[in-house]
Amino acid sequence: MRRMRRLRVPGIREMVSETDLGIQNLVQPIFVDERITEPRMIESMPGQYHQSIESVAAEAGALEDLGVPAVLLFGLPSTKDEMGSAAADPDGVIQKAVRAIKECTSLLVITDLCLCEYTSHGHCGLVRGERVLNDETLPLLGEVAVSQAQAGADIVAPSGMMDHMVRAIRTSLDWEGFADTPILSYSAKYASTFYGPFREAAQSGFAFGDRRGYQMDPANFAEALWEVQLDIEEGADMVMVKPAMPYLDVLRAVKEMFGMPTAAYQVSGEYSMIQAAAERGWLDERAAFLESLMCIKRAGADMIITYWAKEYARQCEG
Ligand code: PBG
User: Which residues bind 5-aminolevulinate 1 (predicted)?
Assistant: First the structure.
């Protein structure tokens, strides 16, 4: 007679666990704001901070000491324009932050590669009227990638969902001597309401329209597989599904179908929902983030970009 509960006792339960989650799988996003000098709490994301160029190295050092292996950097520039020019500035916020971190840690530095934090209209590409232009945006993305690699980025992560962005970036990197810099593509990035808190954190809300002209429709599954396949053909070294929790079916399918190194991004809304419930005493924060991360790993993620990376390291490692 089969009794499933025999193996659920302490000692055996751990031995037969099917999923291994550890700090080596986690990436901590960091927001760097060029206009501030002291770290500042992000209101829409309790527990997360805007770092300054001066403070980011110390934060990176703390993460390294805790055992967090990698960070994903977002920049908030002091000036924005139509073209998002500051994104490719060799002395731009991201480039300065990468250099500062690289000078005093050996953390893996991943740079988010998009224009939306740098454009005055807040869209992820050049615009004409209310149209977000695709092919006109590609050379700019190539320039941004090269400037990030020159600053010392270990991995570039294009998140703008422009068609052929991976090929354009790969070509530019190779041409400029960065053939060994990997691309982590936000391949299946959905037009999600769960990015809400991030838009305050990155101050990348848009002046008109929405992102549905380039980000994916949450109703679609097969399309995500196409997106991933195209990115792989264009040269992506790692692929990503974003958000994570509402899209675990997509994550599982991507991992199974392509067998590529696969990342999942547990986004700002996923974070802030749990934080908000925990603040009210409706959920246990630690148990909730541990379960959510375990489930994302179980669904097929090799790496998870999560705002709890630091907290995980603090509470669960060492
Ligand atoms: C920019 C970008 C966004 C996020 C990561 N890169 C916002 C967006 O596309 O609107 C969201 C991250 C999060 O919500 O945590 N292209």
Answer: 199, 211
